[in-house]
């Protein structure tokens, strides 16, 4: 019996110590207590028993009647039900809730953020909203899947309600933003109404490799975000030795607002590609597609006999297909006029213009009477 009690106590201790949050008491008289949400929201213990959610509520209530609670978020998301529960508990608290996004707030983490009376985010922070998804393991029939689909709709509507309450946007607009899986940097998150203002300090962000990013010491798995635009990382980090980082170097020049985006350091095409590889790739692909279409359009208007014009338009002096058609038409008109002039010149040179309208029959004696006419007069005299 004693052994079973000891095992139960040990299990209870393990559950109580398995946190994905941390409450931190106020550091000074004028400071506010903090709730730290770094890393994934929720663990297998959140809904595995009632100890974890109850413990969160107990720790929140233990702060007492404080005027303000600061919630610090740096998370790629997690369990939407846990996020909704935390959101509700924070909204019900009488304290002013100040949310500080210390790097990322993606997926379920944005739900918690919506509890803030004031939401701050760094300029290079990341804010992402999307439709909720359901992971399945096992075998399900049509009725099971239909029920899950309806449940997802209810879950999405609960998230939409939180976004609408904060942003003031129309529910249909918010639903569309979620369906598109929308990514925002700090400024755009503020412009879109999901956050209220920019924080003074940027988040220290390092891209270690193609699948891992470290934001303020929190490692995030990029494999979880297959639709994340690479250009967003380009805006939030700068190239550094061994990867991408926005951490200022001790030996380099001090960063100022004038060159915080690295714009003044771009002087060559190679610099531009290094700073904005995704953007330059898009530009190159668009230019290639446009050039291919131009060549094809020229081929469509090309006709035999005008190969020089077509070749020049393709490679020497690039022009649009419409201009090629005009050049060919002008050349045809020029060639037509030359043909008429050459024909007139040939006619004059042949002497054909000096030939009379009729010839003299053989035997005619110049100005004398024609023998045939004389014979006719003899047979048919004027007077009988």
For this entry, give a set of tags.
384 residues, alpha/beta, eight-stranded mixed sheet, five-stranded antiparallel sheet, 13 helices, 46% helix, 16% strand, disordered N terminus
How would a textbook summarize the main sheet?
Answer: 8 strands, mixed
Helix count?
Answer: 13
The amount of beta strand, in percent, is 15-25%
The number of strands is 13
Span between N and C termini?
170 Å
Mean pLDDT over the residues: 76
Helical fraction: 40-55%
Based on helices, strands and strand pairing, what is the structural class?
A: alpha/beta
Taken in chain order, the helices and strands follow as HEEHEHEHEEHHEHEEEEHEEHHHHH
Shape: elongated
Q: What value does the Rg take, in angstroms?
A: 43 Å
Provide the low-confidence segments as ranges. Answer: 1-5, 10-17, 238-264, 359-365
Describe this structure in words.
The chain has 384 residues and is an alpha/beta fold. It is built from 13 helices and 13 strands. The protein has helices spanning 2-17, 51-61, 80-92, 108-113, 142-167, 171-179, 186-191, 230-236, 269-275, 277-301, 307-316, 321-350, 371-379; strands spanning 22-24, 34-38, 68-75, 96-106, 118-121, 126-129, 182-185, 197-198, 205-209, 212-215, 218-221, 238-240, 243-245. Helix 2 links the parallel strand 2 (34-38) and strand 3 (68-75). Helix 9 packs across helix 10 (277-301) and helix 10 runs parallel beside helix 12 (321-350). The longest helix has 30 residues, at 321-350. The N and C termini lie far apart (170 Å). Residues 1-5, 10-17, 238-264 and 359-365 have low confidence and may be disordered.
